[in-house]
Automatic annotation (TrEMBL):
It catalyses: iodide(out) + 2 Na(+)(out) = iodide(in) + 2 Na(+)(in). It is a multi-pass membrane protein. The chain crosses the membrane at residues 13-32, 52-70, 82-102, 130-154, 160-180, 192-212, 239-257, 278-303, 338-359, 380-400, 406-430, 437-455, 513-538. It comes from Clavelina lepadiformis. This is Sodium-coupled monocarboxylate transporter 1. The keyword Ion transport applies.
Amino acid sequence: MDFSPKTFSVADYVVFALMLSVSTAIGIFYVIKDRKKQNIEEYLLGGRSMSAYPVAFSLSVGFMSAVLVLGTPSEVYRFGTMYSWTLLGYVLMTIVVAEIYIPTFYNMQLSSVYEYLEKRFNRLIRIEGTLLYLLQTVLYVGIVIYAPALALNAVTGFDLWGAILSTAAVCILYSTLGGLKAVIWTDAFQAIIMLIGFISIIIRGSVVMGGFENIWRACEEGGRIEFLKFDTDPRIRHTVWSITFGSGFLFMALYGVNQGQVQRFLSCKSVHEAKKAIFLNLIGLELLTGFALLCGTIVYAYYQYCDPLSYGVVERPDQLLPYLVLDIFQNYPGMPGLFIACVYSGSLSTVSTAITAMASVTVEDFLKPVFNWSDKTYTWISRGMIVFYGGICILFAYLASTLGQVLQAAISVLGLVGGPLLGLYTLGVLFPFVNSLGAFFGANAGLAAAIWVFIGSRNYPPSPEFLDQLSYSTENCPGFENATTLSPLATTSTVTETTSYTPPEANLYALSYQLYTVFGFCWTVVVGVLASLLTCGWRDRKTVDPRLIYPFFDHWIFKCLPESFRKCMTCGVNRRSLDEKNSADFVSFLQ
């Protein structure tokens, strides 16, 4: 274990530069290849001709990638393996998105998922949904750009703003040049880089520690191995319930109603390919998250007796994995560069996904309904919007430094807006009697409630008993006297609790960050349903376009129920039964 200052070699910079060059080359390739046929649909939706495999790769790394690489290992190091229950949340999310949201949106041949809100409710709801999405995405991308750059700057001396600007510049370049096709194929390349990076760390870490059984034993001794916390108290940071349902609802919001991901489904050449993509994406998510969790166990086992945070060689938990990589690969030139490529592949894929999606909704939701311009004009405007949003995201990177640990900050920001947005679409898709007034009041109530709890949690942090943060050892740190030390987070929380007034509602503010999405979703649905009933929304239920409602009780799973009951549950919406169609889709998918 070497705590001397670490720097990059020439080989590391060469490997990193090569990854950026390949990403840029993909964009140049597609601008040359499609230069004669590129209209607005080709540019923003890939001509609706993409197959499931590259789309699945793109989906896997499109949103949680950079956060996953740095945040998940530090989560295991500090809090243990409870976060692994998110793997079950992915499964629940995939089934719901594949069966409900993808068929509804794909069969309407939308360009922007927010078109649905205008068709189902009115234009005001569509604009509100679009604005909420833009706010959520800009804030989240600020975290994605800033956090990896800060971590690598502190550990390696890699220039902070040089890293931020290079990330943004490369994303803007290949996204502007090649459109969605370039973004999807570049994401596929970057997913492979991430897998190679994770596997390299796992293999080298196991060799250094004398086998993975030693790593597991060290984690057990340090209390990091825990899977069966079934507490029902929602204030506890991580339990089986909060992580499974919290991650499930969060990823439903990301993959079911977020333009960045839905845009990829819509680029597939059929609804069958779109469904296949989401199930293949599940495999990718499980692999990437599983590898990240394993890397977290390696970080803890390696630094079991000398915590880099307490010793002062790193300042933030998100810097632990980069520091480990430089430590175990110090005699392997180019390998730290490969890890940097892994981290920045995550950033590139997320940023390119976001700015392309924001350009798409700006054109489709704000410009096309007002101006009757040509496809060529809209294509050039889309390119300009990608550059514009790339610049905005760089500015918002300044705000990310105030939000704390990257994984928790990212989940919190996504959940604040994702929950109400998911609730808004769920009101439209599953409740035929919900009207535009119910949707408006529901979405705003859900958003206000989620923001209220989030701000309250910043002012009144949860007490240490709910955080479950584990202790670290410093007994083998050179010149360090204390055998163990409490985390700075736990100490800070204790001081806050004992020196300031705590209002009764602080129990609500202590809600686990994993449940922000669920909290906003529930408020939106409950208020939306009640407001619709109070404003006589049931009177217009039979006039709703059947294509806008998912036939939940027409699904082949419910075929055993009495026909009269199933008809009653449709609330009077007239549509043909989809039993045969859904059964055929299921058989087709298996084939």
